Sequence to fold (1120 residues):
Amino acid sequence: MEAKTNGPSVNAGRVMDGPTNPMVTPLLTDLYQFTMAYAYWKAGKHNDRAVFDLYFRKNPFGGEFTVFAGLEECIKLIANFKLTEEEISFICETLPGSCEEGFVKYLRNIDCSDVEVYAISEGTVVFPKVPLLRVEGPVAVVQLLETPVLNLVNFASLVATNAARHRLVAGKSKMLLEFGLRRAQGPDGAISASKYCYIGGFDATSNVAAGRLFGIPLRGTHSHAFVSSFMSPDEILERSLHRSDGSSTCEDFVSLVQSWLSKIQWAKALGNTVGETNQSELAAFTSYALAFPNNFLALVDTYDVMRSGVPNFCAVALALNDLGYKSVGIRLDSGDLAYLSGEARKIFQIIEKEFGLPSFGKTSITASNDLNEETLDALNKQGHEVDCYGIGTYLVTCYAQAALGCVFKLVEINNQPRIKLSEDVSKVSIPCKKRCYRLYGREGYSLVDIMTGENEPCPKVVGERILCRHPFNESKRAYVVPQRVEELLKCYWPGKSGKVREELPALKDIRDHCIKQLEQMRPDHIRRLNPTPYKVSVSAKLYDFIHFLWLNEAPVGELQ
Amino acid sequence: MEAKTNGPSVNAGRVMDGPTNPMVTPLLTDLYQFTMAYAYWKAGKHNDRAVFDLYFRKNPFGGEFTVFAGLEECIKLIANFKLTEEEISFICETLPGSCEEGFVKYLRNIDCSDVEVYAISEGTVVFPKVPLLRVEGPVAVVQLLETPVLNLVNFASLVATNAARHRLVAGKSKMLLEFGLRRAQGPDGAISASKYCYIGGFDATSNVAAGRLFGIPLRGTHSHAFVSSFMSPDEILERSLHRSDGSSTCEDFVSLVQSWLSKIQWAKALGNTVGETNQSELAAFTSYALAFPNNFLALVDTYDVMRSGVPNFCAVALALNDLGYKSVGIRLDSGDLAYLSGEARKIFQIIEKEFGLPSFGKTSITASNDLNEETLDALNKQGHEVDCYGIGTYLVTCYAQAALGCVFKLVEINNQPRIKLSEDVSKVSIPCKKRCYRLYGREGYSLVDIMTGENEPCPKVVGERILCRHPFNESKRAYVVPQRVEELLKCYWPGKSGKVREELPALKDIRDHCIKQLEQMRPDHIRRLNPTPYKVSVSAKLYDFIHFLWLNEAPVGELQ
Fold:
């Protein structure tokens, strides 16, 4: 096994842990970053001061917003970026041709002390073309960072966005659980998904490792296999259960459950619809309640939800109630969730009245069968009684769009602005080291993002009109009088520049920030159907410079 | 940082490493596996002997085959399955309600010494419903394994299948490179993808960490940023280059390149189409050649492929040729790959003739712009001159279908067969501990897979007709007289049963096995368009038993 744990690094007197996954090392990069490093070094260009922007060109999932995530892991990588001797040997063996000794020495001394990273806060709602990260430093080192940083941001932002979209459809009042571990793209496809779904607004995960690593609340009860592993209540040997207040003990909880089942079966209010229920299921529910009397939640669809699962759940819940325990609820994992949740709710309400159980009608209903944005939306339209969703495959693999296309482009080298041209205008990069601002309007919503040259003055708040131009379409421009101006890029890694380093917030704070950010968006930007694109602009000065450089670099075509 | 390295385990005198990713621990599971373990333990059922099958219900990507992968990582997990004290404390704090001391002791003693794992060899072509793994052991322990084993098999098999499908479309003669690291789903979404794409038939990866971990060949040259980081050849200070045989030194390689560029510009055979090329690009190519004279491969689309990139490449390649070096080729990363590769090929052929460079016409052309199965297929139909494909996003994220739906179902407990029913017949599980065979016909192709009860005799090879029945459709059945019978499930983890443990093969052998397996498939099963489903069957005896059990368990409906 080759994976290793990077030691903690010291920066400005502080120690910072390495990336969560110890496999994230300086070797988690494309080989060409090392071949280029060698070529830069051979050309004496390796210390040329380069500025790269990390950004995406299109919001995912047909939407008009993205949640930026992955920053903390990037900074942890950068803080601990150091090649080991074994890694250096491997690189030198791998580079085609022989590798000069001077380069080996150079690799030994590489770290990120001369790199500066400016970034938007993690959990912020972001838009195409605006840099999420700006990384400055010696060109060879910054290029080594390109691939791992893209890897750490791309999926993190994609899955946080997916989670936020699920939250928007489900509504604030629903509990959202991430259940994706078994179908995720590998072990930390799963662990990352748990982390970034939490940031995007999920409440809990089933993934124990992620719960432990990040302090995310954990949820889970039992599976179909648990139900079918039982044959009948006869096999339950330990049948006693203390009252919840410890005052006495019920010696035969199994019989208590059976007697409640009979009462349910004979209850006129239930219209005599309950016949024989499945005994293996009843045994499983009873056993589970004996183990977790304070947290009884039963999966009710192993045999037949309405004829077996729900009545069996109610029998056990009523027996628990006798002993002072309040049951949690049921989980539906198949069938017509709108219909079944409604039918189950009716039974719970009838039982509340018939047997005088206050609030039993509000028993929680969890649904969890291949859910995604579309099914949540369809459930809302049909009407349903689901309180909690467990969402797996479609959430964590981002099934609707499995990749976000962040890129990392050179925008300046040795103070010379650089532009990447393309026949496709959407792929032309915005040159120069830039500053980025978000301008807010009267109602508190954000109006537009604007990029300016590094040395332009910051847009002013009161009274002054600011001209915001589309970077490539000359006819698209607007004057804005902002009520508030927020600078987006902050210094998260100052290197040896002496600048103040922005603290990395706790996961919970990133999540709160994300939720607040979404509340500050004008609803038409974040709605599912035909959302309005959010405006991203450049200053008049930057606009002029982009087009000057473009004409300068583009070859004049010749029609033949 | 919480990730840890599991120590190696000893089994039958052999030490086995832990999983590649140290984050794969017994906590990488759903919380409900632990709540169930507690409930089983409370009910005294935790040591009930259970048999679970891991299988999928539908082949991915609209195809009719799947490549099984992920076995080695599963066995490494199982071989090292042991909870640490810290993990046990975390579980006990996390379980709802208080956790009895006896359960803590039980968790301390859990390992897989009493578990047996039977599996199909990694790299085998597999089909729906046939168990890829059969895991037997104490029900509570086997359920803890469910989630991590599904996680390790689902993505591995999905991405290996995706790679195999890309190989089938590209054809055997093409070089296939995996370039997905930056867009993969997290760090080991990338590392796993590199490993399993290699198994599925790729030749190399750009991912240095994966190359080092698994010994996969590495490939990579330079990016657009490298090209645009140069301004002009004037900035190249170290201009000398030894001849390849070391006999002499060219003092000004930059001028040699410039003189070749003039010759190309004036060459009548090229129809005077070559004008001024981009000097920043020429500088970058020259520098790269100075660093890697034996491995000169240039990315030619930063400015304009035909007017700048290809002529600049040829000038450098001709200069290298003067000094005895053979160039590798070009890479195209945008535009019309069919057209551009054809035009570049023509130039190479003209230069071969015009300047007398043997085999220069065969200079390698790599293409790498958002490629997938469809674009490879379209390129084949249009005709192209590409020799090598670099494939990223669509390959490693399995963009066309981001998840495989393997499930893990209880088929027997304490020697009692169990069936999981569903309104959807395709979701009904096949009960019983089973044996699985692949039957081969006269032409060497596999004809059908058949599952039998554990104690049924093995299908015989010569002369005997075997009745193969569709598990759920009574009218679908066929007699088969096999020429060869292969038992699919082998013992990869014997626990303490004393059985012989199948060795885990080397990665290269798994890859060879996969390639050979695909060659043994009848072509209509693996073709892209309307492939024929491969037949999966059960023995007559197992068929009868399934339907007996089904009728026994299913409730009789009542129409009202």
Q: What stands out?
A: The CA atoms of residues 348 and 361 of chain A lie 4 Å apart. Chain A has 17 helices and 24 strands.
